[in-house]
Amino acid sequence: MKSKFIHIIVILLLLPLFSDAQAKCSDFFKYRRPEAPYEYNDQSSSAVCVTGQTYEFILPLTKGKDYRLKFYAAAVFNNRINFKIIDQSNHETVLDLPGESGSREEGSCVLADFWNDDTGKSKHPYFDFYPVTSTTLKIIIEVLPAPQSESSDPNVKKQTKMNRGCVTVVVLDKKADNTSF
Amino acid sequence: MKTHFKFIKFGIVLSMLIYFSACENDNGNNGNETDSLSGNVIEINEDNLITYLIPSPKDMFAFTKDGNLEYSDIVLNKKENADKFLDTKSKEVGFGVYSADLAYVAAFNQTSTAGEYLKIVESLSDKIGLGSVFTEKLIGRFKEVGSKDSLLKVTNDTYYDIVKYLEENGRNTSLSLISVGGWVESLYIVTVLQGKFEEDNNIIQLIADQKNIFENLILSLEQKESDPNISEILNDLKPIKKVYDELEVIKIENPTDYNPTGSQIMVGGTTKIVITKEQFIKLKKSIAEVRNNLAGSSV
């Protein structure tokens, strides 16, 4: 009986370690793969992110290639993430979308799947880029704070839960359709 | 009972140690943000909120093949140089150098040479703790190149497995050093193959455009500058930095090359990196100097 009790205590003590392990990015490697006609680009990257923080990925694009970008985020964030992409060559914002939109239509959000009438299947959003000259994209990922928990007691301070999870940027490329190479 | 108590105490100390060390190593998230639920303070390191991405060597060789450059094994790092790497830094950079050589021979489908360079890459991988990537299955795939897989696909998959292994094991410094070796060797190969400067040449423009990638590489290394190996490699790269810093980025007044298809988002097109003949010669020289230093070559 005592032995069982000790085992339970040890398991409980190690629980925080396992919940932290869920924030690791190993599981997200399954998204980092080629999708014909696009090849996998090794600039794909994953990072463990925390709610309330903003992260940047600086991605150089080379002329002569067509690029496709896809994003994935841990379920713990509930798609409450904003995505902005800036073309560094002229500092123009070329994409500014939430992780999930009410309509879930194609092109309206970055993380939530949309229904594709042509294939009769749901599809994960993707964004295609054509670099006229080599340039660099700044991808800004704002992980929004989780909603505050409400309390009827005015003396209880509002509590913000801090979540940690993986966010992955998948980069795919193919030889540009109109390349001079 | 006394033993049980010790066991619990050990469990408490162990779990606290692991939990807090995991927080610290978590992609550099440290700063002054308070989790109001637990009261724990998680420090945020602002530098690591930015990730600078670096392409692998295969990117460059895809273009050179299309750019009608001839294959030549003279540009490869000599096989015997692999024995000259003594410390961890040079072994990891050297691993990147030979991985780029392997990517180059694979891009030109040189199966026999690829086999020789694969052996070097495999041997170096063992020395830097990446031996487990080279499984029997992977070696088997190399042996069956041509019948089941293309050489290029197997080398690309190998690079992917290496990156995956390094990321999963938090070996960011190793990944940086390998990236430096790979990038320098690929650029060395391309600049040697290109030979002379030509106006409006796609390969010359590709070499000039590496300015963006080089800047990313430097910024990425600077984030880890406190590591002596990284600080040293930053110093090694200075001759190349000096030339790339000189390259001018000009505005394109009347861009004409616009032809996106479908829902493509058009980017770039308003600026262009310019390289002169003199700068190209200087760049070529500085790349050769840095490469020969990193690759253990006395040329």
Brief digest:
The complex is a heterodimer of chains A (181) and B (299). Chain A has one helix at residues 2-21; strands at residues 39-40, 45-50, 54-61, 65-73, 81-87, 92-98, 114-116, 121-123, 127-131, 135-143, 164-175. With 181 residues, chain A is mainly beta.
What would you say this structure looks like, in words?
In chain A, strands 1, 2, 4, 9 and 11 form a 5-stranded antiparallel β-sheet that branches. Chain A has a 4-stranded antiparallel β-sheet with strand order 3-10-5-6, with no helix packed on it. A two-stranded antiparallel ribbon of chain A has the order 7-8. Chain A has one helix spanning 2-21; strands spanning 39-40, 45-50, 54-61, 65-73, 81-87, 92-98, 114-116, 121-123, 127-131, 135-143, 164-175. Chain A has 181 residues and is mainly beta. The longest helix of chain A is centred in the first third of the chain and has 20 residues, at 2-21. In chain A, 11% of the residues lie in helices and 39% in strands. Chain B is mainly α. Chain B is 59% helix and 6% strand. Chain B is built from 11 helices and 6 strands. Chain B has a two-stranded antiparallel sheet. A two-stranded antiparallel ribbon of chain B has the order 4-6. In chain B, helix 2 packs parallel to helix 3, helix 2 runs parallel beside helix 7 and helix 3 runs antiparallel to helix 6 (151-168). At the A-B interface, helix 1, strand 1, strand 2, strand 3 and strand 9 of A face helix 1, strand 3, helix 2, helix 6 and helix 8 of B. Strand 9 of chain A pairs parallel with strand 5 of chain B, so a sheet runs across the interface.
